[in-house]
Amino acid sequence: MTLQAATWRQRSPAFFAWRRFQANRGALVAGVVLGVITLMAVAAPLITKTGPNAQDFLITSLAPPSAEFWFGIDDLGRDFFTRIVYGARVSLTIGFAAAFFSILIGIPLGALAGYYEGRADWVIMRVIEIFSVVPPLLAAMLLGALTQGGFLTIVAIAALFGWVQVCLLVRAQVKAFKEKEFVRAAQALGASPGYIIRRHLIPNAISPIIVGFVLAIPLAMMLEASLSFLGIGVPPPTPSWGQMINTGMSFMYFYWHMAVFPTAALAITVLATTLFGDGLRDALDPTMKGR
Amino acid sequence: MTGFILRRLLSITVTFFIVSLLIFLAMHSIPGGPFDGGDMPMPEAVRATLMERYGLDQPLYVQYAKYMWGVLHLDFGIPFQSPGETVLELIGRAWVPSLVLGGLGVLIGAPLGILLGMAAALNRNSWIDYLASAFATLGLTIPVFVTSMGLILIFAVWLNWFPASGWPEPEKWVLPIAAYATIPLATYARYTRSAMLDTLNRPFVTVLRAKGLSERRIIFQHVLRNAALPMVTVFLPMFIGTATGSIFVEAMFRVPGMGAYFVSSIRTRDYPLEMALMLMLTVMFCLAYLISDILYAWLNPRIRFGGRKG
How many C-beta atoms surround the C-beta of residue B204 within 10 A? Predict the structure, then answer.
């Protein structure tokens, strides 16, 4: 019996997570799509003819898509394919940056609330309660209008509303783990609360943190697009899909490409990121499936 | 139960004042004001008179106290952008298109979503299940202005079936209602599917089958009733949530409703209108959650609030 057991290969949790993720075809495809979009954003200068703001084709402004200009030319004489690709850069950068700051705020607050409970928990939960009754988009609009938009402001606003989810996930995980024997043992050995949180509780919350991180990305991208659509997000000429959709609205009857491509780009990117995140969640924690 | 409701009402009141203070500070925190000119420069004396007239020359805490005192008497002030009426009159006029379009969107979307979710749960892993999942994911992830754009491009620009924008004529309602309906449709398709599947796996369903009850009666009399609980609780918050969507849907379809005023009140620094709209939405959201919780407890005899502190 023991001999047989020894011949079994030890598999890591990551291996099983990867196996579950692979079985989810939709998430796999979404991951590949997201990877391609990210690659295109990173390699933007290599795959485009001009800079995103170069008005090199003014004579052929609003030209429809052709073999040379895949997505056509926009109203200001810029290659639209270039604009869309650079738009991915803006969208993804804001998404990742906002998600990063979300977990940066969410992890310590979640750990604090989950570990100490009592007063710290009460205060943090009341703050979250206020965040949950104010519709994030409206509050973001107010803040966006007040600060006149801008790249960093959008990241800050998205993080301000993104940390809540991460905080709740971490709090639940910390609460569940802090009564376990190994934490009790660490406490008995004289480990400080800060050490236990850093060394034991946060590493055990890594799956929800990864999931919270990935799922915060599409939310931030949507927020950026929505604010830019209303003209209080990323200011022109920085290429932003939300902004392009707004411009496209005025041209859609005669120059359909101005509306179709940014709409499709935004929809595909947000969808791929969400499906990838959902797949990751199901793979990392099968018990959370379908929530 | 009464204790629970009272405690929640108290917490809503506190939230209300905190939110009002935050919004007030945010509105006034950066330099500039509603009468700084911009398109229409005005002499300094005129500006000073206007500022005095609306009490904007007073210290902030006086302004806040005065405004909130008014709010407690249901006086939300006079909108700077249309001084001929009160804020309440303006809102009373503007919310009709929003409510008609948003309300019809929810009333059409929610039942369709429930049907789709039921069909998906009863035919697991069939084409209809995949269709429902696809709809749910699309509706929940893609921002509503992108959905609206897609609808306009397909049905107005390409097929030319419906007009793309405008308000009073009913044929112009079709596309905005469809845009609104995607959110409740997606939400309900997902909730109904998971709630039905949860319930179908419970032992009591097996018992019902074993005692020979027809599948139809099991589904409609037992499973649906048990699965309906989470569906009831998401309804009100989702309904109020259409207010957020209205900003984008109304901008997309050029409807003169609440959403349009929201944007313009923020852009022109129309403090009284902005404050009134934000506060009303906050209260509506708070009440929606409270009513949902009460309904949940009332419909579900297994849950009673108040005994233990949650």
Answer: 12
Model's pTM, two decimal places? Answer: 0.79
Mean per-residue pLDDT, B207-231? 84
Q: How many CB pairs under 8 A join A and B?
A: 100
Q: What is the ipTM of this complex?
A: 0.72
- Provide mean pLDDT across the span B77-86: 75
Q: Best of A249, A258, A276 to disrupt the B interface by mutation (most B CBs within 10 Å)?
A: A249
Specify the amino acid at residue B163.
Answer: P
**Token pair in block for residue B9:** 């009402």
- CA–CA gap between residue A130 and residue B22 (Å, rounded): 11
A46-91: pLDDT as tens digits: 777 777 777 777 777 777 777 777 777 777 778 888 888 888 888 9
Average pLDDT over residues B102-116: 88
Alpha-carbon distance of B102 to B96, in angstroms, equals 10
| pLDDT at residue A102, as a whole number | 92
Q: Which residues of A touch B142 (CB under 8 A)?
A: 266-267, 270-271
The residue in chain A having the minimum alpha-carbon distance to the alpha carbon of residue B197 is: A290
Measured between CA atoms, the residue of chain B closest to residue A128 is B15
Kindly report the length of chain B. 310
